[in-house]
Design goal:
CATH architecture: 3-Layer(aba) Sandwich
Number of strands: 9
Bound molecules: NADP nicotinamide-adenine-dinucleotide phosphate
Distance between the termini: 48 Å
Number of domains: 1
Structural class: alpha/beta
CATH topology: Rossmann fold
CATH superfamily: NAD(P)-binding Rossmann-like Domain
Radius of gyration: 19 Å
Number of helices: 10
Shape: globular
Strand content: 5-15%
């Protein structure tokens, strides 16, 4: 690993982005850990100082054009290159489809989809000029199948999958790779910061029972079959250090089982299995 490889990670205040930044820096990448709120940078800065890691923290809100542009410009003025971009920032909007307002859905897309597009478009001209680079998009098992209460979040991750797959053809001739990482249930702050659609919070919502069942289902999965964020970080590291990286990587002990089911079952069988597992 050459020390001068530069990695940029979005959404690094907690969870997968935080662990991925540490993992990349510990493995020789000059790592720009970006976050929208610099007040949350204390922990990563402490570890970087303690372990003498090549980590720099920069402000970057993926929903804000100027913030993305300024961060990328600042990084380029310090390094002159970007070798790896990890599009990780995201959150979960949960709610029955009929209960979702357009504003709630637009905000979800603004972060999970348009944020990823905005950041990637800001970095690509540099990678194209370098004729090298890897864009890692953190999707989800929810990028491969839907579940009740997840229509907004799931559809953002399906969008990430489609974008990534299409981009990969265009970027390959310029030496740029696209990698999609699909975590299962990972123990992070994401479950504490779920935005529940306002109407779905109402006990009189026609969907309140389904919402309750899903909340219990996720609690069970978190307790019994979840993985830690550093497992995802290891998957990202192995993808970006592999000369022949794949388009898709699964990350998490649960996700292999689900995707085996998706591969081997008919849609109807998969639907039945999901209903039995999620909506007991
Ligand atoms: N945990 C899971 O089970 C799981 C499974 C599959 C996929 N994922 C995906 O993994 C990614 C990371 O999630 P996580 O589990 O690590 O959750 P997390 O601990 O909640 O981290 C999410 C990160 O995204 C940041 N973020 C949110 N909106 C942002 C914005 N507008 N601009 C910049 N940063 C923003 C958050 O910053 P703040 O601290 O400022 O809010 C935080 O740093 C997400 O894309 C998520 O969809 C997670």
């Amino acid at each position: 690993m050459k020390a001068e490889k530069v990695a940029v990670v979005t959404g690094t205040s907690t969870g997968i982005g935080y662990e991925t930044s540490l993992m990349l820096a510990r493995n020789g990448f000059l790592t720009y850990a970006t976050m929208r709120n610099l007040n949350k940078s204390e922990n990563i800065n402490l570890i970087a100082t303690k372990e003498k890691l090549p980590i720099h923290v920069k402000q970057l809100d993926v929903t804000n054009d100027a913030s993305v542009k300024n961060a990328v410009q600042a990084i380029l003025s310090e390094t002159g290159r970007i070798d790896v971009l990890v599009n990780n920032a995201g959150y979960v909007l949960s709610g029955a489809f009929e209960d979702l307002t357009m504003d709630e859905i637009k905000a979800q897309y603004e972060t999970n989809v348009f944020g990823l597009i905005r950041t990637t478009q800001a970095v690509l001209p540099t990678m194209r000029q370098q004729r090298s680079g890897i864009v890692v998009n953190i999707s989800s098992a929810a990028g491969r199948f839907g579940y009740p209460s997840g229509s907004a979040y799931v559809s953002t991750k399906f969008a990430v999958e489609g974008l990534s797959e299409s981009m990969s053809y265009e970027l390959e001739p310029f030496g740029i790779k696209v990698v999609v990482v699909e975590p299962g249930v990972i123990r992070t702050n994401i479950f504490n910061s779920v935005v529940v659609a306002k109407k779905s919070q109402d006990p009189n919502s026609p969907y309140s029972q389904i919402m309750q069942k899903m909340a219990t289902g996720f609690e069970d999965m978190l307790k019994n079959t979840s993985s830690s964020a550093d497992l995802v970080a290891k998957v990202v590291l192995s993808a970006v250090t592999n000369e022949n990286s794949n388009l898709r990587y699964l990350a998490g002990k649960d996700v292999e089982t689900w995707l085996d089911g998706k591969r081997n079952m008919s849609d109807e069988e998969f639907y039945k299995m999901m209903k039995q597992n999620l909506m007991r």
